[in-house]
Amino acid sequence: MSNIRHTPTAPTRAKVLAAGERIDAHRHDDHQIVYAGSGVLAVTTDAGTWFAPGNRAIWVPAGTAHAHRAHGHLDLYLVGLPADDNPLGLDAPTVLAVGPLLRELILAYTRDPGDDSPERSRLLAVLRDQLRASPQQPLRLPTPTDPRLAAVCALVHADPADTRTLAALGAATGVGERTLSRLFRREFGMTFPQWRTQSRLYHALRLLAEDTPVTTVAHRCGWSSASAFIDVFRRSFGYTPGAHNRRP
């Protein structure tokens, strides 16, 4: 990332982003919790893109250069924590599940950033406790560093409905299947099918945020049927794609 803006203190506030709006690359000396109350949030660093619908938040460690992008109308809630206050013990961006209580705590804590009352301090203490209990979610698209892997990933990103096998994609880019399989495991820690599912889910979330019908999303993102898409989506996010834009 180039032209990175430095903001020493991570703001705690609520912010609205229009569909497609971006916050350019920046970094804070503080940690930050980024929660999308509606729409889909994408946070990108040099290492990859983390994505979160409305029941997920993204932990961004202090000093991490990152950019935000909104898919659909995005109600964005930001909670800053001092660099020496890391309740999660995480040093890399991570997607976290957000249950009903944690959601309400985030909304309440960001409602009046200027409030320094003891009541608000207690609210933060409970919020931190809930963070510790939040399951981590593998909703990430890593950025490939090997150019051979990058070429294959670019083909899949360009057309999520492409059903070609890894061998066929390798043939199209002049790389052997075994080499590519090894690169996926070495760089991403996952198999090609696992990575492609992550890629398709990311594209699906973006389309759903634009109110694209579920059947159309399934077709455009490479699932054999709407029911197959619904099953994978439910197992990944805990609700059906049809309920995505109806979530509070």
Task: Please give a structural write-up.
By secondary structure, this protein is of the alpha+beta class. The chain has 8 helices and 10 strands. It has helices at 100-109, 118-132, 147-158, 166-173, 177-188, 192-209, 214-220, 226-237, and strands at 5-7, 13-17, 22-28, 31-45, 48-52, 56-60, 66-81, 94-97, 136-137, 140-142. Strands 1, 2, 3, 4, 5, 6, 7, 8, 9 and 10 form a 10-stranded mixed beta sheet that branches. The longest helix is centred in the last third of the chain and has 18 residues, at 192-209. The mean pLDDT is 90.
Please outline the helices and strands.
Elements: E1 5-7, E2 13-17, E3 22-28, E4 31-45, E5 48-52, E6 56-60, E7 66-81, E8 94-97, H1 100-109, H2 118-132, E9 136-137, E10 140-142, H3 147-158, H4 166-173, H5 177-188, H6 192-209, H7 214-220, H8 226-237
Parallel strand pairs: 1-3
Antiparallel strand pairs: 2-7, 3-7, 4-5, 4-6, 4-7, 5-10, 6-8, 8-9
Helix pairs in contact: 1-2, 3-4, 4-5, 7-8
Classify the secondary structure makeup into a structural class: alpha+beta
Terminal CA distance: 34 Å
The topology string of helices and strands comes to: EEEEEEEEHHEEHHHHHH
Poorly predicted segments: none
> What percentage of amino acids are in beta strands?
25-35%
Helicity level, as a percent range? 25-40%
Average pLDDT metric: 90
Radius of gyration: 19 Å
Task: Work out the number of β strands.
Answer: 10
Rough shape? globular
Biggest β-sheet strands, sense, barrel? 10 strands, mixed
Number of helices: 8
